[in-house]
Amino acid sequence: MSKQTVYNYIAITIGSLLTAVGLVVFLIPNKIASGGISGLATILHYIFDWRVGRTILIINIPLFLIGLRSLGTKFGIRTLYGILALSLSTDLLEGYCSGLPTLTTDPLLASIYGGGIVGLGLGLVIRAEGTTGGTDLVAQIVNKYTRISVGKGLLVVDFCVIAIAGIAFNAEIALYALISLFITSRVIDLVQEGFNISKATFIISDESDEIRKTIINQLNRGVTILEGRGGFTCHNKEILLSIINRSEISDIKRIVQEIDDDAFVIITEAHEVLGEGFDETQLKEKEI
């Protein structure tokens, strides 16, 4: 077993534990069923007094078997491990926290913090090329037999769970569940794309050569020259592309303004930049 595989299983374990913390500490005590199998298990917990972790496992087993048959072995050992890790973590934490007071009874706070922690946990699991089963399996199975995309399938399944929560509890709780679901999805994206968001700058100027040299000399950043053509004038233009950190935005604006006040500058976000001067550790991890 390679080091990367070991790291992935450790990440799946930590991610599953964090997901269980978000569920047990914040979402379940406040009846917030923010979609997914865990949301459905939360509803069943309050209707039939079933253990949430055990219910997650019971619902996921047939989904896992169907997914294994329909989608192949790529949903094999890591999926099974993720399902077991989340189920066991949830039940263990639920038993441990049963005698402790609820951290918050404010549904808004529970939605925000619970959704954020669950998103962080699931993001770690997905980043480690794992899954905790659930609605993503349902969505991909539906996608194979219908024209519904995986993204739309996830949205439909989660919406159905939240609608059931609205019927089982009340409409207000369902609205809080939507907030939690939105936060979870955003945090998952942040974990996947990286927290260290760099900036990509595109500079169009008649003084591109001087700007390029100044960026290289003063900021010690590389510059890529792209060939462009004006749509109105049909004149050929050089477009400078440079990736910088947030702290260098004001510096690059100053440089461009000092050299060419009429330059056209676009600054946009660049998630998870890998390479020299940025996050080289992830490149090394991928080479293992």
TrEMBL record:
Q: Which Pfam families match?
A: DUF2179 (PF10035), YitT_membrane (PF02588)
> What are the entry keywords?
Cell membrane, Membrane, Transmembrane, Transmembrane helix
Q: Is Nucleotide-binding a UniProt keyword of this protein?
A: no
Q: Which residues cross the membrane?
A: 7-28, 48-68, 80-96, 108-126, 154-179
Q: Which GO terms describe its cellular component?
A: plasma membrane
Principal location listed in the UniProt entry: membrane
Occurrences of domain DUF2179 (ranges): 221-275
Checking Gene3D superfamilies in the record gives: 3.30.70.120
> Which superkingdom?
Bacteria
Keyword NADP attributed: no
* InterPro entries (alphabetical): DUF2179, N-reg_PII/ATP_PRibTrfase_C, UPF0750_membrane, YitT
- Membrane topology for this entry? Multi-pass membrane protein
Where is the protein situated, by its record's location annotation? Cell membrane
Protein name per its UniProtKB record: Uncharacterized membrane-anchored protein YitT (DUF2179 family)
